[in-house]
Amino acid sequence: MKKIFFFLGKGGVGKSTLSASLAYYLNTKGKRTFWASIDPAHNLCDILSLPSFMGTKQITPNLWVEEVDINAYLKRFLKEIQEKTYHTYRYLQVLNLDKMFNVIKHTPGMEEFACLYALKNIIDQHQDKDYLIIDTPPTGLMLRIFSLPFVTRQWLKELKRWRKAILARRKMVAHIKGESYFPPEVALAENEDKVMENLSAQQRTMQFFASLFTDQEKTVLILVLNPDKLSVLEGKRILDTLKSFGVYIRLVLFNKAGLLPRPKELDLLKDLPQKEIPYMKHTLDQKVFLQLGRMWAEDVCK
Ligand SMILES: Nc1ncnc2c1ncn2[C@@H]1O[C@H](COP(=O)(O)OP(=O)(O)OP(=O)(O)O)[C@@H](O)[C@H]1O
Ligand SMILES: [Mg+2]
């Protein structure tokens, strides 16, 4: 996989349209391209004028499309947590695991984790493709997905510190009372502890995403704006939030240009490369997507 593209911006600015323009541009260049939507409100089928579908569809010899079923990923993700929890804490009869699992299920952030989990799967499965294009949900959810690896990394660091302290205490107790004081499933050493193993596995996944999102060679973030003040101001907030994690926007696409005058707020983004995409009066079909793609995609695909 050479590059992964994400389209960000306020609802309705043209993220899906411009992801289509890139998909058709890469298709005519003969690049093997996987184009997926992780927006729970899918509409790639509408863009392609296809009947609604879930899962993957090959639409040309080099282009595959997937409407990612985030709910299915959420279920799989929760099932994995459930299995790991039972496996790790089987011996703790005092703990009501079913009750605990119900709490986990309704914990804020689960949808974002499911999106990351889906993304990891897509990336792992499509290493053989040249390019991945990810059509994203509107700003709020997308920013939470992007910030998750950075925030979770901090959490995991703290949790590992606490876990180390617990293991050290256990060792002290075992030293005084004798090793047989604990049942054999209770680990005393870090390298035998399943909780530590799970935390380290989570840490590797979060590190994978933090590295991917900050890798400007591989990850190309495209901010889509319209000639309206609100989309530009929201774009600026996206830019600033991502910057605080060390994640940078590569290109601003000023879409539907000509529909209304250029808002003066665009100057707030003057340090970034910008391209204008005109408002198209005709029906947007594959020919028009390709035409739009040719206006902007060449540089960012290098
Ligand atoms: N350059 C353009 N010229 C004309 N119409 C456009 C252009 N770009 C997008 N549109 C139209 O604007 C509408 C919104 O576009 P699109 O669905 O791509 O936005 P989005 O950012 O993906 O929206 P959402 O946040 O809801 O997913 C659609 O009707 C689309 O056809
Ligand atoms: Mg969309």
Can you describe this structure in just a few lines?
The protein has helices at residues 15-28, 44-47, 70-89, 97-105, 110-125, 139-177, 194-214, 229-244, 286-300, and strands at 3-8, 33-37, 55-60, 63-67, 131-135, 219-225, 251-257, 274-278. By secondary structure, the protein is an alpha/beta fold. The chain has a single domain (3-198, 219-300), classed as 3-Layer(aba) Sandwich (Rossmann fold), CATH 3.40.50.300.
- Euclidean distance between termini CA atoms: 13 Å
Mean pLDDT: 91
Q: Any idea of the CATH topology?
A: Rossmann fold
Strand order of the largest sheet: 3-4-2-5-1-6-7-8
Bound molecules: adenosine-5'-triphosphate, magnesium ion
Number of domains: 1
Percentage of residues in DSSP E strands = 15-25%
CATH class: Alpha Beta
Query: How many beta-strand runs?
Result: 8
- The proportion of residues forming helix, as a percent range, comes to 40-55%
Shape: elongated
The major sheet is characterized as:
8 strands, mixed
Overall structural class, as computed from helix and strand content, comes to alpha/beta
- Helices, by number, come to 9
Radius of gyration, in angstroms, nearest whole number: 23 Å
> What is the succession of H and E elements?
EHEHEEHHHEHHEHEEH
Full CATH superfamily name: P-loop containing nucleotide triphosphate hydrolases
